[in-house]
């Protein structure tokens, strides 16, 4: 038996015996040689002359053991199994446990599917970060700067998934003033609890989890730092999961489109860990049952909120993503002739070098909430609703006096796709300059090192698109344009993969009639 390593694939050749003894030797030697970064183990079984059931069952234990020992969830492929091995595999019904490549029986020769469009969403992997990092340049060498959508991921993700801006999806910021529809009225009674308890993140996370079920929220939900005293004033606008059909507040998303068109797809479950989502996609690709895949990796965003955009940990995380991309591409190329890879983000991340205590300034005005006004302090924005003109004038004057932020006028909001005629998300929108964090806010009590949600023209706001498609449509310039790439890729794949299987079944028929 010989073992050697090539491109993260461990190749085992010259296997002659696959009985209890031979299987045990194979098992031991593979695990001794297996690097952590292996993406696949291939065992050439073309020379096997003696085989039995115990030997075959060793292959099952090898499959389990390599997944345990290597950290990229490697798959086990059996290459050209000899006639006795094929016979035993069929006899023991163990054929379906393995990926069998180029079997000795010509009818076993696997035909690949034609095309897989693979969309990998790396949250917050902005253009400025990629300027300093060659992230994924092997897998996706063609890169482009994309303009983001004004707002947080709650705005950007629905826009990517629908090709529309927030004014059309009605997915923008999380909390809005809507006392008539507030699902939180019962929480007002928690207002008597001391701030020391209710402002604790751990308490808020627990409570958010606890009430998410009864409120039937399907998406991500967090009460953040909204004061319980006022919580009955607010509604939460992302009750649905944008990564599901009917997941947007208004109009269809890509998953509605795929469902209507009968195109089978894979999409990540955002509540699952990244690696689990990777494994689930890997398995779906290997099953060849899908014509489109959407993978969501949110951890880089969390890391940069914590560390800012210059931490050495960013490079470590990007290297990990590259390994995972290698694994996915290896599996995908093994099952699809052509794999179009699109790695993209929704926005970048700015370092927060300045803190703005806007709340203290507004509280210093002799106005009352909610009698005179209502406000939601996001991390980079403050959104106001007014009950009278005195409050409007006083708050406008106060905001005009803030030198590291400004009120956005209607024309500008309209150009950003965020002017809502019914002022659902606020009658007046104040936006901090890039690098200025509003703190404390309704999003958090304490400062964060990194933040996004600044003006889309601010340098760190730009998103990115990395692909292995050489002539990417030149009209793809803003993140909502990713939608048309998804629609286009999915429909081409659906047609190509269908006609491939038609060709295959025709040729099988021909063999039968002859
Ligand atoms: Zn974020």
Give a description of the structure:
- The protein has 16 helices and 23 strands.
- β12 (265-267), α10 and β13 (292-297) form a beta-alpha-beta unit.
- The chain folds into four domains: 2-110, 2-Layer Sandwich (Transcription Regulator spoIIAA), CATH 3.30.750.24; 114-165 and 241-349 and 459-498, 3-Layer(aba) Sandwich (Alkaline Phosphatase, subunit A); 184-236, no CATH class; 353-447, Gyrase A, domain 2 (2-Layer Sandwich), CATH 3.30.1360.
- The model is unreliable at 103-108 and 504-514 (pLDDT under 50).
- With 514 residues, the protein is α/β, with parallel strands linked by helices.
- The strands form seven sheets. Strands 9-23-14-8-13-12 form a six-stranded mixed sheet.
Write the SSE topology.
Blueprint: E1 2-6, E2 9-13, E3 17-18, H1 20-33, E4 40-44, E5 50-51, H2 53-69, E6 75-79, H3 83-91, E7 99-101, E8 113-122, H4 127-131, E9 142-146, H5 153-162, H6 166-169, E10 175-177, H7 195-198, H8 201-212, E11 234-236, H9 254-261, E12 265-267, H10 274-286, E13 292-297, H11 299-307, H12 312-335, E14 336-344, E15 350-351, E16 354-356, H13 358-363, E17 373-377, E18 381-386, H14 389-400, E19 405-407, H15 410-415, E20 428-432, E21 436-438, E22 450-451, E23 463-467, H16 482-513
Parallel strand pairs: 2-4, 3-5, 4-6, 6-7, 8-13, 8-14, 12-13, 16-21
Antiparallel strand pairs: 1-2, 9-23, 10-11, 14-23, 15-22, 17-18, 18-20, 19-20
Helix pairs in contact: 1-2, 10-12, 11-12
The structure holds zinc ion.
Zinc ion binds next to helix 11.
